[in-house]
Amino acid sequence: MSTQTPTTQTLPTTSKQWNVIAKGQDGFDNLRFSEQPVPALGDSQVLVKLQAASLNYRDLTIPLGTYPFPTMPGVVPGSDGAGIVIAVGRQVTRFRPGDKVITLFNQEHIGGPLTAAASGTHLGGARHGTLRSVGAFNEQGLVHQPESLSAVEASTLPCAGLTAWNALHGLPGHQIKAGDWVLTQGTGGVSIFALRFAKAAGARVVATTGSPEKVAMLRRLGADHVINYRDEAGWGDVAKAFTGGLGVDHVVEVAGPSSMAQSLAAVKVGGVITVVGYVAGAGREQPGFLDCLLRFCTVRGVLVGSRAQLEDMCRAVDANPEALRPVVDGQLFTLERAREAYEYQWSGKHFGKVCIVMGNSASLGDDTDI
To answer: Coil, helix or strand for 105?
Structure first.
C-alpha cells in the first residue's frame, strides 16, 4: 500500500473526534469527545483534513435514539463536512493532495434512483462521519468543493442543500421552472435552501414560520409571502389562496405527519409534495392514501440525493454564488464545543445552518480559508 502526500506536509497520526456511545435517555450526553489514532489509509481512500461541518436534524435524533434508520455502534456523527485532501491511496484517481472537497451523504449513491444498498451507506449513521479533525473516505463518496464558497458555507451542502435540490430538480417531468409556486416550511437548512433555489429559478415562494421574529428574515431572502402557522391553523388554505386558488406546484415537506394535511390542502392538482423530514415528530396521526388520491398529486419521499445531483448543484452554486450562497447561522462552534451546537440547534433559536469549525476558538471568523 502506498499513498500520495504533499512533500512538505507530515500526516497527522491522531484525530480529535466525537462518537455516539449510546442512544436514548441521556440525549446529547451520549456524545463523547476524544483523540484517536488515524487508521491506515486504504488503496481507494482519501484522507481529508476536515475544516468545517454542519448539523442536520437527523444528527440530533441519533444520540436521542429516535433516528428511524440503522446506525453503527460508536459512530462518529455528522454527514456534512468540507476539508482539504492531504493524502490519497494508490488506486485513487479522482483527487490529489490539496484538493478541497465536500462529503456525499449516502457514500454509494453515485447516480440514478436510490437503491436499498446505497441507502445503508449514510455518513454519521451507518458509516463514520465528519465530526472529527481528520477522516478517511472512499474517493467515490467525495466531490470537489464549489470554488465560490468558504469551507463553512460548503459544509452545509451535502445533506440540506442536496435534499432541497432533489426536491425541486430531482423528479423528471416536474423540475422547478420560472413562474412555479413553492411552499417551504420553517427556517431550517432544507427550507432555506429550497427558498434560495426556488427564487434563483424564477419561482414564487410561500414560506411558513412559527416565529414572528423570523418573518422579516424570510422576506429578506426573497419569500413572496410568509405565513405564521401559529396564527393560521389552516395555513395550507392560506397558501393556496396566494396562488389564486390553483395551489402550489411544489411543497417541500420537512415537518412530517403534523403538517402533511396542510401540505395537501396547499398543493395543486398535478403538483408534487416531496417528503424530506420529520422535524415536528414522527407520530402516526396523518393523512392517508385517499387524501393523496383526492388531491391528484405526487407524494414522494427522498433520502438526500446522488453524487451526480450534488455535482450538478455545486456547478449551479458556482455559476450564481450570490443568489445561491448558503445561509449560515451567526453563531459558530469549535469542534470541542460540538455538543453545545447540538443543544443550540435543538433549541430552535438558529436561522439557517448551524456550523462547526475544526480550528481553535481564536480562529473563528479570522481564517479566510474557512
So the answer is: coil
Q: Give residues with Cβ within 8 angstroms of 113, minimum separation 6.
A: none
Signed CA dihedral, 161, 333, 56, 20: sign only = positive
In this structure, are residues 267 and 273 in contact, taking their beta carbons and an 8 Å threshold?
A: yes
Residue linked to cell 512538505: 8
The torsion region of residue 222 among left (phi > 0), alpha (psi -120 to 50) and beta comes to left
Domain coordinates in residue numbering, the chain: 14-158+305-363, 171-301
Give the residues across from 272 on adjacent strands.
250, 298
Distance CA 259, CA 185 (A): 9
Helix (H, G, I), strand (E, B) or coil at 219: helix
* Structural element, H or E, at residue 235: helix 235-242
DSSP SS3 for 80: strand
Q: What helix, strand, coil percent values describe the chain, rounded to 5? A: 30, 25, 40
d(CA 205, CA 164) in angstroms, rounded, equals: 14
Q: Which CATH number applies to 14-158+305-363?
A: 3.90.180.10
Gap between the Cα atoms of 96 and 320, Å rounded: 27
Task: Report the alpha-carbon distance of residue 272 to residue 192 in Å, rounded.
Answer: 18
Q: Which residues pair with 136 in a beta bridge?
A: 47
Report the C-alpha gap between 85 and 41 in whole angstroms: 12
The radius of gyration of the chain from alpha carbons, rounded to an integer in Å, stands at: 20
Query: What's the CA gap between 333 and 52, in Å, rounded?
Result: 10
339, 307, 166, 285 alpha-carbon torsion, rounded to 10°: -50
Q: How far is CA 192 from the centre of its chain?
A: 11
How far apart CA 77 and CA 17 sit, in angstroms, is: 9
Q: pTM to 2 decimals?
A: 0.92
277 falls in which pLDDT band (50, 70, 90)?
A: confident
Q: What is the pLDDT confidence band of residue 7, given thresholds at 50, 70 and 90?
A: very low
Give the percent of the chain with pLDDT over 90. 84
**Could you tell me the fold of the domain covering 171-301?**
Rossmann fold (3.40.50)
